[in-house]
Amino acid sequence: MNNNLLAGGLPTTPDITNSLFRGTSFEAFQQIMLVDPASVLGVILPNLIGLIFVFGMIIFLFMLIWGAVSWISSGGDKAHIENARGRITSALVGLVILFSTFAVIKLIEVFFGINILSIDIGPLVIQ
Questions:
Q1: What is the pTM of this model?
Q2: Which residue of 80, 81, 93, 105 has the fewest C-beta atoms within 10 A of its own C-beta?
């Protein structure tokens, strides 16, 4: 019997691995969790911010195309044209908000001297 397990401690190396995730980014994520759980934020946060930007751009394109198609298919009806114009305006405002958020993130990075999109967290220290 392992005395470390009998004393209630955790094993230092994982005994069970899933071969399905071998060679993937999930395996790298598991290795980071085992080595330094504080560095997980440095992996998740930049990926999450990038994912939010990608979803924002996809939503912008969808709304812009939807507004353009509804404008074209309005047939001269004033209510449909105003609805389509409002949808296109909302998409453009969303794009401006997305780019201004990116600009604010870059401004914070320059002002504080940190890299938010690739945070490297040591033990309670942001490097």
A1: 0.60
A2: 93
